[in-house]
Amino acid sequence: TTRGTSKGGRYGGKQSPTHHSSDGQDGTSESSVDKLLPRIVRFRWIIPANSEIRVRLRFISSEVGQFDQTVSFEIVGTKRNYKVFCRGVCTFPSISREPRTVFPNRQKTRKPNEIVHKKFILSTEQYDFGPLVLGKDINKIRSGTYQTNVETLTIDNTSPMDVEALFCFLYEVEPSKAAFFLDPTEMHLKSGESKV
């Protein structure tokens, strides 16, 4: 006869919301997540010789974080205990927001009346192209002929899953009046991948 129990673990102050205690009672108050999962009602199994049973282990969380649990199995009549460490991660696709990763040129602060060229100012969290000559051909700017009018940003996927990134400006304007352009406007990145 084999008996299985579950012991709750903690990581970063978070605990799995689907934790069940060894007496078959839910470890937390009932929620919509709990209603989706069958309650554990059986903790002992008789396993015939040279055979097996399958125990389904599920992970579901309504909170972002990393959750650790330990499932413990014990053979009745012996003192042998078998532990299985379980870890589940619940997260969202994300890209790096670190200026040192995104922008090739950075500056901590800008002095009064200082003119900067193509730098991200860390203190104000703003990117400044600096003064540019008016009247340049828009098609040549888009093709990269005038590098003073173009900056290359690095997009880094910091999540453990693929990212479909869509880029846009906070305030949309008519294309004929637009002063800023993005190319490309969308990007697919695998986990840990970086693109410019």
From TrEMBL:
Q: Where is the composition biased (Polar residues)?
A: 15-31
One GO process term, biological-process aspect: axonemal central apparatus assembly
Region described as Disordered: 1-31
Gly residues composition bias: residue spans: 1-12
* Any GO CC annotation of this UniProt entry: axoneme
The record's PANTHER family line, in alphabetical order, gives: DLEC1 DELETED IN LUNG AND ESOPHAGEAL CANCER 1 (PTHR23053), HYDROCEPHALUS-INDUCING PROTEIN HOMOLOG (PTHR23053:SF0)
Protein name per Swiss-Prot or TrEMBL: Uncharacterized protein
Lineage runs:
Eukaryota, Metazoa, Spiralia, Gnathifera, Rotifera
